[in-house]
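Side project, low priority. Logging it here so it doesn't get lost.
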Amino acid sequence: KNKAIQKGNLKDSPNPLVFELKTPITFPSPSAAAVFIAGCSVNGRKEWHVENQGMSLKSWQMKH
Protein backbone atom coordinates (compact mmCIF):
# COMPACT_ATOMS: atom_id res chain seq x y z
CA LYS A 1 0.00 0.00 0.00
CA ASN A 2 2.87 2.36 0.78
CA LYS A 3 4.24 1.93 -2.76
CA ALA A 4 0.84 2.75 -4.21
CA ILE A 5 0.68 5.89 -2.08
CA GLN A 6 4.20 6.92 -3.15
CA LYS A 7 3.37 6.32 -6.83
CA GLY A 8 0.23 8.45 -6.51
CA ASN A 9 -2.17 5.55 -7.20
CA LEU A 10 -4.21 6.35 -4.09
CA LYS A 11 -5.84 9.58 -3.02
CA ASP A 12 -7.34 10.78 0.22
CA SER A 13 -11.09 10.49 0.68
CA PRO A 14 -13.51 12.41 2.89
CA ASN A 15 -13.02 9.64 5.49
CA PRO A 16 -9.44 9.95 6.84
CA LEU A 17 -9.31 6.16 7.41
CA VAL A 18 -10.03 5.38 3.75
CA PHE A 19 -8.08 5.85 0.52
CA GLU A 20 -9.57 5.91 -2.96
CA LEU A 21 -7.91 4.46 -6.04
CA LYS A 22 -6.89 7.00 -8.66
CA THR A 23 -5.93 4.26 -11.10
CA PRO A 24 -6.83 0.55 -11.23
CA ILE A 25 -4.44 -1.85 -9.52
CA THR A 26 -4.24 -5.47 -10.67
CA PHE A 27 -3.30 -8.13 -8.14
CA PRO A 28 -1.92 -11.60 -8.96
CA SER A 29 -4.24 -13.34 -6.48
CA PRO A 30 -7.17 -12.78 -4.13
CA SER A 31 -4.75 -12.98 -1.20
CA ALA A 32 -2.50 -10.26 -2.64
CA ALA A 33 -5.53 -7.97 -2.93
CA ALA A 34 -6.63 -8.82 0.62
CA VAL A 35 -3.15 -8.13 2.01
CA PHE A 36 -3.20 -4.73 0.26
CA ILE A 37 -6.48 -3.87 1.99
CA ALA A 38 -5.85 -5.47 5.39
CA GLY A 39 -2.20 -4.52 5.75
CA CYS A 40 -1.31 -7.95 7.09
CA SER A 41 -1.15 -11.55 5.91
CA VAL A 42 -4.62 -12.94 5.16
CA ASN A 43 -6.14 -15.66 3.00
CA GLY A 44 -8.02 -13.81 0.27
CA ARG A 45 -10.17 -16.79 -0.67
CA LYS A 46 -11.54 -16.85 2.89
CA GLU A 47 -11.71 -13.08 3.46
CA TRP A 48 -13.34 -11.98 0.18
CA HIS A 49 -17.07 -12.59 -0.02
CA VAL A 50 -19.19 -12.85 -3.16
CA GLU A 51 -21.68 -10.01 -3.28
CA ASN A 52 -25.30 -11.07 -2.73
CA GLN A 53 -24.27 -14.72 -2.28
CA GLY A 54 -23.52 -14.81 1.45
CA MET A 55 -20.42 -16.95 0.97
CA SER A 56 -16.68 -16.62 0.82
CA LEU A 57 -14.84 -16.67 -2.48
CA LYS A 58 -13.47 -20.10 -1.51
CA SER A 59 -16.97 -21.52 -0.97
CA TRP A 60 -18.21 -19.95 -4.20
CA GLN A 61 -15.26 -21.37 -6.18
CA MET A 62 -15.87 -24.85 -4.77
CA LYS A 63 -19.48 -24.72 -6.00
CA HIS A 64 -18.60 -23.45 -9.48
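Brief comment: The radius of gyration is 14 Å.
Revisit when time allows.
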